[in-house]
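Hi R.,

Here's the input for the zinc ion complex you asked about:
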Amino acid sequence: MVTERLYDDDPYLKRFSGAVVGFSDCGVVLDRTCFYGEAGGQAGDTGVLGGVHVVDTVIGVGGDVVHVLREEPGFGVGDVVEGVVDWGRRYRIMRLHTASHVMEYFLWGRFGFMERTGSYVDDRKDRADYVHEGRLDPGTLKLVESDTNEFLAGGHPVAVEVDREGLRHWSCGPVEMLCAGTHVRNTREVGAVKLRRRNPGRGVERVETSLAD
Ligand SMILES: [Zn+2]
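And here is the predicted structure with zinc ion in place:
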């Protein structure tokens, strides 16, 4: 049995209870959870589970969600425990994750399509790497930032559809992609963002997105 991922139906769920089904080297597996396991370039959640701190959440062998615990738990297999996600952190991740998709749409709009070779979002920033020869022009990147902020302020609703193969299609106005991460329901929740260019080298340019507040 693979962990039921409660965040798929409700990314705003902060608290849940689930039964302990097993332990692995790195943590505990429950029958269900609202803790997001690191995948698809989105950081894993932290919080508290059965009174024990969860320092990270990962996807284990077979697709189970594994809660990495700071200390030895007082609970065992079969026990039902309550989990509470560190919501301040997760909500920032959801805002930044949503912003990153919108940013990319306008980035491609201004610079043309560039292949994305990697991305990672946590509660501080989203970073996305694109194949691009030379520097991304700072003036043009500033325009991408204003395009993005104007769109975010427009209050566009987000939709997620699951297809027959179980793939999750995320869309927001003209912006669409396959993504199984957690996002906000409306772009207004994101607020404004700042973009910053970095150069990790080897023909790759990095765009970092952070929240303006
Ligand atoms: Zn996404």
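One thing worth noting: The helical segments are 6-9, 87-111, 138-153.

Cheers,
M.
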